[in-house]
Design goal:
By secondary structure, the chain is α+β, with helices and mostly antiparallel strands. The protein is 48% helix and 22% strand.
């Protein structure tokens, strides 16, 4: 056991001594790799945020109320909307193909959109009819779907909207052939809104998945580039060499400047004596009065 521990310790120490010269380059790379999970998470969240803001449709289930003496109705809260976005609103119904529904004929669908303060934002009233789906190869279906377009364009100008939907006929008290009431039987009802694409945002709405992936990739590249630029000077081996070369050049330039100053001082000192002699040679002598020849002859006669 002791030999094994000694072998492990020696191996570890040899490994540390081997990688020690490369540690200035390995440690920044490990730091960069440790940041990658955080960068990936933030990029995913950015793409998800774009996806949520590019929601092209919303759906609200309707729970119809029967037996109140009026046509079936439902109250629903519309999911949070984008205030400046336009939507087209429609109604989807799943109804049984019974004789009473087929014999009902046309029925009305009334939609009223209001704010939370009970202010009417938009309303619509449309007619529809139940038709059976028949096929030569398949048997008759028990249910059918009805899509009723209600509002072609609606801009809420707020995020919270309430909806009231009424389906059926006002003359529901009258009966059909076998005594059924003139009332529409519904299995499932759903209010649906689709965003109307316009401009650049419209292009993004047509391809929400692609735009979300591109935005997440761009966010990942930007964050990884920022982290890489912060760590890159520590990884590059040329950075220290460049600093040493710059320092050497600065020292050499300072030495050259000092030598130039010393040579100039020496030249000035050596040139000063010559300058003095030349200046002294150039100093003018005082003027002497010149004697005339007549004065010299008079001196000679006096001597005689």
């Amino acid at each position: 056991m002791a030999l094994l521990l000694t072998f492990i310790r020696s191996t570890f120490l040899s490994f540390i001594s081997f990688i020690r010269p490369y540690s200035p380059h390995i440690i920044p790379i490990l730091v960069y790799v440790s940041f990658l999970p955080l960068i990936s998470t933030l990029s995913f969240l950015s793409g998800l945020f774009v996806w949520q803001n590019l929601a092209v449709s919303w759906e609200a289930p309707l729970y119809l109320q029967y037996g109140d003496g009026i046509p079936p109705y439902a109250l629903a809260s519309v999911p949070d909307l984008i205030a400046s976005q336009s939507y087209s609103v429609s109604l989807r119904l799943v109804v049984p193909t019974t004789e009473s529904n087929l014999g009902l004929g046309n029925f009305m669908t009334n939609l009223v959109l209001t704010s939370t303060s009970n202010q009417t934002l938009s309303s619509s009233r449309r007619a529809a009819i139940v038709l059976s789906e028949q096929s030569f190869f398949f048997r008759k279906k028990d249910t059918t779907q009805i899509f009723i377009p209600l509002i072609p364009s609606f801009t809420p100008m707020m995020t919270k909207v309430l909806a009231r939907v009424e389906i059926g006929r006002r003359d529901g008290w009258t009966s059909l052939g076998k005594g059924e009431g003139r009332e529409l039987n519904v299995i499932y009802a759903q209010l649906r809104g689709v965003a109307i694409p316009r401009g650049i945002s419209g292009i993004a709405m047509r391809f929400p998945l692609t735009v979300s992936l591109i935005s997440g990739a761009i966010f990942f590249v930007i964050l990884s580039s920022i982290v890489g630029l912060c760590i890159l000077p520590k990884v590059l081996p040329h950075s220290n060499l460049i600093k040493e070369e710059v320092n050497e050049e600065m020292v050499l330039s300072s030495k050259h400047i000092a030598n130039d100053v010393e040579t100039k001082d020496y030249n000035v000192k050596t040139e000063d004596p010559n300058m003095n002699t030349s200046e002294s040679s150039q100093v003018p002598h005082p003027l002497r009065r010149r004697r005339s020849n007549r004065f010299q002859t008079n001196l000679s006669d006096s001597d005689n």
